[in-house]
Every structure is written in structure tokens, then in C-alpha cells.
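Milestone M4 deliverable, item 7.
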Amino acid sequence: MSGTLNIWVKSPDTHSERRIDPHLTVEQLKRKLELITGIPAGNQVITLLESESDPRVVATLDDDTKKVGFYGLRDWQVLKVDDSNPSATFTGQLTDISQVDKFEISEAEYAKRTDSVLAYKQRNKVGRFAEKAEAEPTYESVDESIKVGARCEVESSELKKRGTIRFVGSTQFGKGIWVGIEYDEPFGKNDGSVQGVRYFSCLDKYGAFVRSDRVTAGEFPVEELDLEDDEEM
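Output delivered:
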């Protein structure tokens, strides 16, 4: 056997990959492992395992005079190093968090602190403290008075527009229920069709689709324009 071997070294406090010379004696190996594991050479109990995924015991390196290669060491096997007297060397206690005193605080006291994660979230309105956005209406239903053929008035930022309801239902261009209006005047945006789909028919610019909360159905006759002048010219 020549060269070095890639070996896993495991102990209660360590786990690492190492290159091992198989010509070292077990005693020489223990001195090197002491620097790695922190376990004194005289306290070390070294067990050779088949692999990390197969923890079968292959051998116990119990003769300090023999060379490591005597035990048939191969690449990627595991040298498991235990401490025969852990109470004297604190082996394993460095990773045992059950012995660590924990800082505990009641929920009420924690809520009073100004330097906590909770306080940060409250100040910056993060997570569950974020301002809730107002839920958008779903427009899944409409008032019974809003039906095809009914006269109506539609609210807008400019003026109230009158017309006749020509369509009530779902569409391909938006979620929820839409109301199709044929206006009395060319206040609209289409001829009853949107994106190539026809929902009703009317003159171009007389048709529009709006949400039901902007529509009031009722007695809204067509408004006639007074074109007569009071004075002769």
C-alpha cells in the first residue's frame, strides 16, 4: 500500500475529511487526531467504519504499534474517534446545548421592548402589521333592476350619461359581471364588441362596458336638446 487515503474523521465534536498516510502507526495517528478532535491520544478509542452511509464496524485500531494499513484502511472509510474518559476532557459537551442556560422572557415583557424584531415590524408595518389593502369588489352579482332593456344612467367624472342596458354578464376581457350600455349620445368607446368578441350591437362610439356600481336603472327618458332660440336673429 502506497500514497495517502481520503478518510472521514468523526468524533463527538468534529466531522471532517482528512488525508491519512497508511504507513503511520496507530500511535502516530492518535497524536495527529488529537489536534483534530481535541481528544487526548491516551483516551482515544478508534473504530474503523465501512463508510458514512454504511456504519458497519470493520475493525478497532487497538494496537498502537501496528501500522494503520494493517487494518485494511480504504478511501472514504470512516475513523470514528471516541473518548474513553469524556468527563475529564469535556468531549461532547461543547455541542450539547441542553447544558446551556437559555435567556427566557414572557410575551408581555417581550412586547414592551423597543429593540426587538416585534417592535421593528410594528414601527415599519411589516408582515402582519402591514396596512391591509381594501379588498376590491368582486362584482359577482348585480342589482335586480339592472337587466337587459332597462333604461339607465351611468355616473362618470364628467357627466351623467343616459342609455339602455344591452348586456349583463361575464366577459372575456375582465373578471366579474359587466354591464353593456348603449348610450343615447356618442359617449362610448365601442360598438358593443371588445377585442373581437361581440356582446351586443350598436353604433360605433355609442357602446361601453361598466361595472354595475356605476349604473342606476330606472325611468331615464332620452334627453332632448332644446335647439330653439328665445330671440330672433
